[in-house]
Write a structure and sequence with these properties.
It holds the Pfam family DUF3098. With about 80 residues, this protein is mainly alpha-helical. It is built from two helices and no strands.
Length: about 80
């Protein structure tokens, strides 16, 4: 019984592919900008600490930014 000699390892043509596309990265940058805007709105300058913008609007903008970031990651 003769043993057959293998001709070496098979080299596959491996292409360096990124996990995300250019569109995913653009959407992620937009979501980071939305989150940053929410934190700027939350910071404010002067005035009442319990006004509408700081207690309701800014946290909703931040949450929307995080949700948009999740969408940007999951978009195929």
């Amino acid at each position: 019984m003769a043993l057959e000699k293998k001709s070496g390892p098979v080299v596959k043509d491996v292409k360096s592919e990124l996990v995300f596309t250019k569109k995913n990265y653009q959407l992620l940058l937009i979501s980071m900008a939305i989150v940053a805007l929410g934190f700027v709105l939350m910071m404010g300058t002067e005035g009442d600490i319990y006004d509408f913008r700081r207690t309701l609007l800014a946290p909703l903008v931040v949450l929307f930014g995080f949700a948009f970031g999740i969408y940007a990651i999951l978009k195929k």
